[in-house]
Amino acid sequence: MLLMIIVDDAGSFIPAMNHSPWDGVTVADFVMPFFLFIVGVALALAYKRVPDKLDATKKAVLRALKLFCLGLVLQGGFFHGVRSLTFGVDLQEIRLMGILQRIAIAYLLTALCEIWLKGDEDVDYGYDLLKRYRYQLFVGAIVGITYMSLLYGTYVRDWEYQTSGPGSIEKSFFVKCGVRGDTSPGCNAVGMIDRRILGIQHLYGRPVYARSKQCSIDSPQNGPLPPDAPSWCQAPFDPEGLLSSVMAIVTCLIGLQYGHVIVHFQKHRERIMNWLIPSFSMLVLAFAMDFLGLRMNKPLYTLSYTLATAGAAGLLFCGIYTLVDIYGYRRPTVAMEWMGMHALMIYVLIACNILPIFIHGFYWKEPQNNLLKFIGIGP
C-alpha cells in the first residue's frame, strides 16, 4: 500500500517510479504482484482449518464477486478525472477488467485450491510441503503452461480500430500483424484475446505503451506522437486483461506456499530458509529467462516477470518478518501495519481518486476556489 501511494504520486515526474512503458520493470511494476503475493499468504492462514468446505467455498465465491463488482464501479469509468466534475459511465464502453477484478479472480482460484486441494501428509521438512500441496503446485504449473502456450502459440491476425480525434472526428487505424508468438505492443496474443472476448471498447483507453519511444517524443512520459509512430500507439490495451490475469493466479499461488511455511514450521530458522531458497531460485531463473529473450513485462505478465516479482516479494516478506518477529522492531512498522489492515479503504480513497475528487469537488463559485486553495495549497 505504501509503495502504491508513492508511485502514484511520484511516478509522473520520476521515470524510475513510473510503470515501464513495455519491456523491463520499474519500482511501480512490483506493486500489483506484492498485492497478490500477500493475498496468497493470508489465505494460507485464513484456511488453516476448514471444517465445512462447501460453506467456505460459498463465502469465497461471494467475497470474490463483491470485490469484482467493486472494481467495476471504481475502474469501469464511473469516476472521471479529478477536475472534470462529472460522473457516470456508458455501459457500452465500461472497462470490464481492472486491479480489483484481477485480485478477485486470483483470490477465488487460490482459495478454492486451499479449500479442496490439500493432502494429509505430515510436514517435517521443506520437501514434505511439496508432497502435501502437490495438487496446488500442479494447478500452478498447468496455469503457467496454458499461458505460455497461448502467448507464444496463438496466431495474431491483422486488426483495426477507431479513435475519436479533436472535434469528435473518428479515425481508423490498421495494425498489420500476421505473426505467432510476438510480444510487441501491437501484435501480442494478450491484447488479441482481450479484443476478441471483452471487445476493444471495454479495454483501458490509456495504454502504458503510449509512453514508449515509438509512441511519444517525450518518452518515458506521455507526449506528442512521433511522425513515424506505429499505428497501434493509440489503441486501447488493458494491463489487467484476461490472459495476463491467468499468470496473476500463479503469483497468488506462490504466496500461498509461503503462508504454508508459517503454518507448518514454528522455528524462525526453518521459516527463513524455506523462504530464502525459493525466493533466490525464482530470481535467478527470472533473470536467466530475461537474458535468453523471455523478457520481463508487466502488461503481458510474462513468466519471467512473475518469477522476478514473486522472488522479490518473498525476500521483502522475509526481511519484514526478520525485523518484526525475530528482532521485535514493531514500532517502525506500525503505520504500515495500519495501512495493511485498511488496504481496501486506502485504495478506494487514493488510488481511485475518491479523496482528490472530494477535495476538488467542493468549491466556492469557481472550481479553482476549492479546499486546497482554502488551506493554502492551491494556486
UniProtKB/TrEMBL annotation:
The gene is LOC100193923. Pfam families: HGSNAT_cat. This is Heparan-alpha-glucosaminide N-acetyltransferase catalytic domain-containing protein. The keyword Membrane applies. The keyword Transmembrane helix applies. Signal peptide: none annotated. Keywords: Membrane, Transmembrane, Transmembrane helix. It comes from Zea mays. The chain crosses the membrane at residues 30-48, 60-79, 99-117, 137-155, 242-263, 275-294, 300-324, 344-364. Residues 25-112 form the Heparan-alpha-glucosaminide N-acetyltransferase catalytic domain.
